[in-house]
């Protein structure tokens, strides 16, 4: 297959729970593909199937041209994987772990040493190379885990929520590493629950919810399909919410939102904000603020599911032991 990652009708059940419900996707050569969705949507379960850590209940998938079930060993030799929790020996140094990784992949010592030094430079850990991993920050551990996954020069790199829990500076630094990795020709499959991350890094995205893909395409196209910008109106405590909703319907389609806001798709965009404010004032509806937002990936998710992506789901996906 020409595409590095292909899934057809992929299903994974845990007892009566359907974690992944018949998804189809393909990832182009040399692209950064984003898999976006809330916690529990099926992102990590999908990655575990694609990386041979879980057997699909139904459907098929190919990675780097190899069937993930029938040719699992070939898949593993072709991919790099950095999961949410980096399994790093805290008593070893970054340099020691990289050289050990080279040995495990059968790379001759001289070449393994050279690759280790190159990767330490790539992920910005040269100065900390001889420190024990126990002294590394969360961001440094994520970058080291990325370097370890790159030691054998994989065709496809799977990054499962690599920036979860990182501070903004560490997240930005890891974004730089992902861009450089892709610029060097590596295909990247990135799962994330952060809209900005998917928007900034990915050429194409698929949005998953409840184990099903609900939207797929380039971020620009998906946002353009949403249409008009969203006007979010924050009401004062004494304001009549029902009256505000009725008044705002005349300016655009209502949008589900938190109790803090009454929101609509504002047909006239920025040009209509003043008219809305005037209309609410004339009706005696007290307003604390108005916010106009151009379509985002959160709006794409809301269009497809009826709720916001941020904070829309809680809890981890059902765990299962890796395939042996």
Strand content: 25-35%
Main beta sheet: 6 strands, mixed
* The level-1 CATH class of the largest domain: Alpha Beta
In CATH terms, what is the architecture of the largest domain?
A: 3-Layer(aba) Sandwich
- Major sheet: order of its strands? 6-7-8-3-9-10
Q: Give the N-terminus to C-terminus distance in angstroms.
A: 26 Å
Task: Please give the radius of gyration in angstroms.
Answer: 23 Å
- With helices defined by DSSP (H or I, 4 residues minimum), what is the helix count? 11
**Number of separate domains:** 2
Percent helix, as a range, is 25-40%
What class, by secondary structure content? alpha/beta
Question: What shape does the CA trace take?
Answer: elongated
> CATH topology of the largest domain, anyone?
Rossmann fold
Unreliable stretches: 311-324
Structural description of this entry:
The structure is a single chain. With 324 residues, the chain is of the alpha/beta class. The chain has 2 domains: 5-218, P-loop containing nucleotide triphosphate hydrolases (Rossmann fold, 3-Layer(aba) Sandwich); 228-294, 2-Layer Sandwich (Alpha-Beta Plaits). The protein is built from 11 helices and 14 strands. The chain has helices at 43-50, 72-78, 94-104, 109-122, 138-150, 168-183, 195-201, 219-226, 241-248, 273-282, 297-305, and strands at residues 5-14, 17-27, 32-36, 58-63, 66-67, 79-82, 156-160, 187-192, 204-209, 212-217, 230-235, 252-255, 261-266, 287-293. It has a 6-stranded mixed beta sheet, sandwiched between helices. Helix 3 crosses helix 4 (109-122), helix 5 packs parallel to helix 6 and helix 8 (219-226) packs across helix 11 (297-305). The two termini are 26 Å apart.
